[in-house]
């Protein structure tokens, strides 16, 4: 069993409109944009990062906003719901805030004994807020949400699969343990993690296969401390039979990727070097930052990328 995994690092999704996406996460949800850069493989598309003050692993929601992309089709083989942690008694505040912002899909529910508020992102993204009494992570407090109600980071993510057995075994190999189950959902958790410690496996044998598009999660990333720990994880996965990419430099972390038995794309990302490697903390996410291989495109990109602020 691997001991290097610390919990979630980030969740990366697809969107249709960059400005709308930025407005939703920085305005409606009150997160901080900690990086404005571009997709390594499609540099004419933003890669936007939203998180706490410094982009702590376990708080980072990222997006590729592809203009005019079709909406995704929910189904099996993908991340179903991304769940954020908020303090106890915060849901009343959030229910009003999201309702006032005309956010769709609002629904109160109880899951594994915790009060939750489900809602949709601008592209139908599946989200929820869950009240967590003892989450000590510091929130971003300059996004218009009171500190006593603000998002602390991720609580969990659910994987919607036709058959969850092999993915459950993978997660257990990655250091997760089964802690509960409810109906067709099995809950696994990483003990002593970074706060973003929970993965729910939702088994839906009759679900159609998901189609990637706006509102879909592209991949989900797990955190390790550094490159040495990442190489240990990579070797262990290769030895187990998984096809794992070489280490890829993503400027703010190093990444490896592999496809799970259920079809979900997993990443293992390092905490180092962090989002302040090319901007000081006070100005994270303000300037357009480009990977070195795309630096020559700056004049074109600055003219053609959609301005995020109206």
From TrEMBL:
Domain VOC, chain residue ranges per copy: 7-132, 153-271
Native species: Pseudaminobacter soli
SUPFAM superfamilies: Glyoxalase/Bleomycin resistance protein/Dihydroxybiphenyl dioxygenase
Family annotation (PROSITE patterns): VOC
UniProt-listed PANTHER family: RING-CLEAVING DIOXYGENASE MHQE-RELATED (PTHR36110:SF2)
Name the record gives this protein: VOC family protein
InterPro entries: Extradiol_RC_dioxygenase, Glyas_Bleomycin-R_OHBP_Dase, Glyas_Fos-R_dOase_dom, VOC_core
């Amino acid at each position: 069993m691997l001991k290097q995994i610390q919990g979630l690092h980030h969740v990366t999704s697809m969107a249709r409109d960059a400005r709308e996406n930025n407005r939703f996460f920085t305005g409606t949800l009150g997160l901080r944009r900690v990086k404005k850069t571009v997709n390594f493989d499609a540099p004419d598309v933003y890669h936007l990062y939203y998180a706490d003050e410094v982009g702590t692993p376990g708080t980072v929601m990222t997006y590729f906003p592809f203009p005019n992309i079709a909406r995704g089709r929910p189904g099996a083989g993908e991340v179903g719901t991304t769940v954020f942690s908020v303090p106890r008694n915060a849901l009343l505040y959030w229910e009003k805030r999201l309702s006032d912002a005309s956010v769709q899909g609002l629904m109160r529910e109880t899951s594994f004994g915790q009060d939750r508020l489900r809602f949709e992102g601008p592209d139908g993204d599946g989200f929820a807020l869950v009240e967590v009494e003892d989450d000590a992570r510091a929130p971003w407090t300059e996004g218009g949400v009171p500190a006593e109600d603000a998002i602390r980071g991720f609580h969990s993510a659910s994987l919607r699969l036709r058959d969850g057995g092999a993915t459950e075994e993978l997660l257990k190999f990655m250091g997760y343990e089964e802690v509960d189950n409810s109906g067709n959902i099995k809950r696994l958790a990483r003990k002593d993690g970074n706060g973003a410690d929970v993965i729910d496996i939702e088994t839906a044998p009759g679900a159609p296969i998901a189609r990637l598009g706006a509102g879909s999660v592209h991949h989900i990333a797990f955190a390790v401390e550094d490159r040495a720990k990442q190489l240990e994880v990579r070797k262990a996965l290769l030895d187990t039979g998984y096809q794992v990419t070489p280490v890829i430099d993503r400027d703010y972390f190093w990444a490896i990727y592999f496809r799970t038995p259920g079809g979900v794309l997993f990443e293992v990302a390092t905490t180092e070097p962090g989002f302040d490697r090319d901007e000081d903390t006070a100005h994270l996410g303000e300037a357009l930052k480009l990977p070195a291989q795309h630096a020559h495109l700056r004049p074109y990109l600055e003219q053609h990328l959609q301005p995020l602020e109206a």
